[in-house]
């Protein structure tokens, strides 16, 4: 105590010991990298995108026919993730004004101003989308690439730009975005009309999307009302929306059992 007081009085601050194994300044260099990774993970909605990539793999697995080489399937999954990331980043770019009004999204980088909303970001997204579609065409075929593009188009344009601010049908129609990933996987095995099993899985995903999102919308109802977004709970109230969710859930469960008729366990 006396040593610290003497050092403070003399204006000399003793050097702090450096922890073993940690170079001076190492934390300074690591923090921006970790922050950038966390920023990209949230900005491009990679948590959702990675899951969508695995649904494409599901389409590959359940489609009858010779499976593509493992490396081709891996590239297709990465292409789906890339296209989903481009659509997710575009969603945050377009909705930055809404995000500022909602407690759930107001810390997003465009909403806070941490990232400037300039056109260079749109060029980046366009490049990622083009490369992703091209990779799908190279690893699989043109039809699979078309499905990859449609998935991003439905989320980025149909849902985000055209429907979200206009109608409660936004997530119903926009929910088709995830289904295209399953169809892309199916097309990699069997170009043409999808077989029954992957078509059913795509339909399950299509019906699952609205009720899971409406459940979130009930929790964030005040946010959506404040932002003027016509999500179903805002339009018809929580109680009626809960009944709609229940009906959708029953339909999803019934539909999810139908692949049993096509050899799935």
Number of helical elements: 14
By DSSP, the count of extended strands is 0
Question: How many distinct domains?
Answer: 1
Residue runs with pLDDT of under 50 for 5 or more positions: 1-22, 24-28
N-to-C terminal Cα separation, in Å? Answer: 71 Å
Please report the first level of CATH classification, the CATH class: Mainly Alpha
Give the biggest sheet: none
Remind me, CATH topology?
Answer: Tetracycline Repressor, domain 2
* Oligomeric grouping of the chains: single chain
CATH architecture classification: Orthogonal Bundle
Order of helices and strands: HHHHHHHHHHHHHH
Task: Report on the architecture of this protein.
By secondary structure, this protein is mainly alpha-helical. The chain has a single domain, classed as Tetracycline Repressor, domain 2 (Orthogonal Bundle), CATH 1.10.357. Helices cover 74% and strands 0% of the residues. Helix 4 (70-94) runs antiparallel to helix 10 and helix 10 runs antiparallel to helix 11 (196-219). It is globular, with a radius of gyration of 24 Å. Mean pLDDT is 89; it is low at 1-22 and 24-28.
């Amino acid at each position: 105590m006396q040593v610290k007081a003497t050092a403070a009085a003399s204006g000399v601050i003793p050097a702090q010991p450096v922890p073993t194994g940690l170079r001076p300044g190492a934390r300074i260099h690591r923090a921006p990298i970790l922050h950038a990774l966390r920023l990209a993970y949230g900005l491009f909605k990679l948590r959702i995108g990675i899951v969508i990539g695995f649904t494409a793999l599901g389409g590959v697995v359940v489609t009858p026919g010779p499976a593509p080489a493992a490396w081709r399937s891996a590239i297709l999954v990465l292409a789906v993730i890339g296209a989903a990331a481009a659509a997710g980043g575009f969603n945050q770019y377009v909705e930055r004004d809404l995000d500022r009004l909602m407690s759930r999204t107001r810390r997003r980088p465009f909403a806070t101003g941490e990232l400037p909303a300039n056109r260079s970001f749109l060029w980046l997204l366009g490049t990622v989308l083009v490369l992703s579609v091209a990779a799908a065409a190279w690893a699989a075929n043109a039809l699979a690439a078309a499905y990859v593009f449609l998935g991003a188009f439905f989320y980025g344009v149909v849902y985000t730009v055209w429907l979200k601010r206009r109608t409660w049908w936004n997530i119903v129609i926009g929910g088709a975005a995830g289904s295209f990933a399953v169809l892309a996987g199916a097309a990699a095995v069997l170009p043409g009309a999808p077989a029954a099993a992957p078509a059913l899985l795509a339909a399950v995903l299509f019906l699952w999307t609205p009720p899971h999102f409406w459940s979130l919308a009930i929790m964030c109802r005040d946010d959506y009302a404040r932002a003027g977004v016509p999500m179903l709970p805002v339009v018809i109230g929580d109680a009626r929306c809960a009944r709609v969710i229940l009906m959708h859930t029953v339909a999803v469960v019934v539909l999810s059992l139908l692949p049993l008729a096509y050899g799935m366990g």
